[in-house]
Design brief:
Order of helices and strands of chain B: HHH
Strand content of chain B: under 5%
Structural class of chain B: mainly alpha
Radius of gyration of chain B: 27 Å
Distance between the termini of chain B: 77 Å
Shape of chain B: rod-shaped
Order of helices and strands of chain A: HHEHHEHHHH
Number of helices of chain A: 8
Helix content of chain A: 55-70%
Helix content of chain B: 55-70%
Radius of gyration of chain A: 18 Å
Distance between the termini of chain A: 29 Å
Largest sheet of chain B: none
Strand content of chain A: under 5%
Largest interface: A-B, 28 and 20 residues
Oligomer: heterodimer
Strand order of the largest sheet of chain A: 1-2
């Protein structure tokens, strides 16, 4: 991906979630664990390079027969999650960090990835044309919604964050294909809600 | 009888998929035969389209 295109995800999805989640960490925890947020230009370049690594790896591994295939938006967003998970914008001192601090980078990764997909969904409708109702309805939401979970379970997004965290902390590689599929279903859930609201066909 | 013996010998020579190490040996070849169908516009075209929407600045 060109740096100018990556910049859109950086400005509209990654930095806002970095700032939001860093702000939500209580100041006494930030102080105790010397937590720091890196959203410098240097970090952006590192993140863009890491995204391109995951994107190229996915392409080489699974699109070897079709070298000209372009990645769909779910795979792009999944690679953004993988890159943030790898680069970790929030750093902190070890000891016994609380779960909220441990999960902070994974939360940024997941939510920035979903927001990137949200932007690409609007972009695709804009490119296809005649989708103003759908675009404006999704725009009003400001972000994709998540399905409800059953009583006693974590909220859907927290479950996703924990699964990314546990996979990474146990040393397993991020499964970009599986997560692109999860992202597809998050998008589809929102599309179906919006189709209902705007009385559009379910295609 | 001779045919049966020949069949057993053939089985002994075959690398079979119920053997985990053999399965892993052949896994890359099998994976290479699976094609992911994936149709998409270029991300640069999509970003251009996004930037042209009236919502872009406030997204």
């Amino acid at each position: 991906m060109k740096v100018e295109s990556f910049d859109v995800f950086w400005c509209k999805a990654i930095v806002p979630y970095c700032q939001k989640i860093f702000t939500e960490i209580p100041s006494e925890i930030k102080k105790k664990y010397r937590a720091e947020l890196d959203i410098s230009d240097g970090f952006k370049v590192e993140l863009c390079d890491t995204y391109n690594y995951y994107r190229d790896t996915l392409h080489q591994k699974y699109f070897s027969k079709n070298k000209n295939a372009l990645m769909d938006r779910h795979k792009i967003s999944s690679c953004i999650i993988a890159a943030i998970t790898k680069c970790r914008p929030i750093s902190f001192a070890f000891g016994t960090p609380p779960v909220s601090l441990i999960l902070s980078n994974y939360k940024i990764a997941f939510l920035a990835g979903v927001k990137s997909l949200y932007l690409l969904r609007i972009a695709q409708w804009a490119k296809d044309g005649n989708m103003e109702d759908l675009i404006s309805t999704l725009y009003e939401q400001k972000m994709f919604k998540f399905p409800k979970t059953h009583e006693g379970h974590d909220e859907y997004s927290l479950g996703c964050v924990k699964s990314i965290a546990l996979t990474d902390l146990q040393g397993y590689p991020f499964d970009t294909l599986a997560y692109s599929n999860i992202l597809y279903w998050i998008e589809r859930f929102n599309e179906e809600n919006i189709f209902r609201l705007t009385n559009q066909s379910n295609e | 009888m001779a045919t049966e013996k020949q069949s057993v010998e053939t089985d002994n020579r075959e690398k079979r998929s119920n053997d985990e190490s053999v399965y892993r040996e052949f896994a890359p070849q099998m994976a290479a035969q699976i094609t992911l169908n994936n149709k998409s516009d270029s991300v640069e075209d999509l970003i251009d389209a996004l930037k042209k929407t009236k919502y872009y600045e406030t997204l």
